[in-house]
Design brief:
Helix 7 packs parallel to helix 9, helix 10 runs parallel beside helix 12 and helix 21 runs antiparallel to helix 22. The protein is an all-alpha fold. The model has no long low-confidence stretch (mean pLDDT 83). The longest helix has 33 residues. This is DUF2336 domain-containing protein. InterPro entries: DUF2336 (IPR019285), UCP035865 (IPR014598).
């Protein structure tokens, strides 16, 4: 009877009075101040108030019900799609909204709606994935900056694919330890592309050198990445590099000279299609002819395969003798260039450059130690 009287009263009451009454009704409902027999009538009254022309009435409902886990869905869902000020109370706070509700809101809502969802605490993996599919850079940044959003590695990869050209996104994602290695490499490539496109870099370096310098920098970053990732992720990284056209002879030789043998072996397994155990056996114990034959199955030419075989034998001998990786690079650089193809010549030029860089680093280390001894 009280609810019936309330409904008759709201027909003539002023908007401010209706808002206060709506808030009181919703609070009484959420505090269980209304008897069991009247709860259904109270729910019907709140649903009726959803059609009130005054936004402050619906806002009063939203504020009073936002934190109540047993609030009627027939009231909560319409409020979540109401005007921004009203919807914000529900989207940010209501435990009634399920993951499916939030995914639907993200799909059909506005940019503001998606922004509200991104700010909601404790978002699940499913909701995060949905937001990244349809949301903006700002939504992705909000998720990455939050401490409670459950962002899966697959969603991180999707962030890189959709928003990897944004510098702030790259900075946030590269700081995450759970970023998959293939996505990390893709971001490294985007950093290189951004540098190459910089007018300042073009003015300082010159357009003709930018491509080569950025390519070398990205290759070095890839080699460094290969050293830091778990072995279980190597195959995924190698496949990503192959698909993107980055698994080049230059990169393979750099990895071998740098001692990244696990990465190199994973790359040969991928390119040759041979069994992993067989590839590792040939690299570790096979004769030069067997090693050359293995490399030729990857598509490398005969002279390039022979150069790789020489590198493997040098690495193998130095590993047994306990020598450093610089010996491999320096000794390769000293190889004769007679009867070598243009591709092999280019590879030897790269190796010579690596050897010179190693000597310069050795000189710096020598000078530092000498200065310390003299002090």
């Amino acid at each position: 009877m009280i609810i019936n009287a309330f409904l008759r009263w709201v027909e003539t009451a002023k908007a401010g009075d209706r808002a206060r009454a709506a808030g009181a009704l919703a609070r009484a409902y959420s505090n269980a101040s209304i008897g069991y027999d009247e709860r259904h009538s109270a729910e019907m009254a709140m649903i009726f108030l959803l059609d009130d022309p005054a936004p402050k009435v619906r806002l009063a409902l939203a504020e009073a019900l936002a934190d109540y886990p047993e609030a009627p869905r027939a009231v909560i869902l319409p409020l979540s799609e109401d005007q921004p000020e009203i919807a914000a109370q529900i989207i940010l706070r209501s435990p009634v909204l399920t993951d499916a509700d939030l995914v639907d809101l993200a799909a059909r809502g506005s940019d503001f709606t998606r922004s509200l969802i991104a700010h909601r605490p404790n978002l699940s993996r499913a909701v995060c994935a949905a937001l990244i599919e349809v949301g903006s850079v700002f939504d992705a940044l909000t998720l990455l900056d939050g401490d409670t959003a459950a962002i899966s590695p697959r969603t991180l990869k999707r962030i890189c694919e959709r928003h990897g050209d944004d510098a702030e996104i790259r900075a946030r994602v590269l700081d995450r330890e759970d970023l998959p290695s293939d996505a990390r490499h893709a971001l490294v490539e985007k950093v290189g592309a951004a540098l190459a496109g910089s007018s300042i870099v073009q003015a300082v370096v010159g357009g003709s050198r930018i491509t080569r310098i950025t390519r070398e920098a990205c290759d070095l970053a890839t080699i460094g990445l290969a050293a830091d990732i778990p072995q279980a992720e190597l195959a995924g990284l190698v496949e990503h590099l192959r698909i993107s056209g980055r698994l080049t002879p230059v990169l393979l030789m750099q990895s071998l000279c740098a001692g990244r043998v696990e990465f190199f072996a994973a790359a040969i397994v991928n390119l040759s299609g041979q069994n992993e155990r067989r590839v590792r056996s040939i690299l570790a114990d096979g004769r030069q002819a067997a090693i050359c034959a293995l490399f030729e199955t990857t598509g490398l030419g005969g002279d390039i395969s022979a150069l790789f075989a020489e590198a493997v034998l040098l690495w193998r001998n130095d590993a047994k003798a306990g020598s450093g990786q610089m010996t491999v690079t320096a000794r390769l650089a000293a190889k004769t260039r007679e009867a070598r193809s243009a591709a092999a010549e280019a590879l030897l030029d790269m190796i010579e450059g690596l050897a010179m860089a190693e000597k310069r680093q050795s000189a710096r280390s020598f000078a530092t130690l000498a200065s310390a001894d003299a002090a």
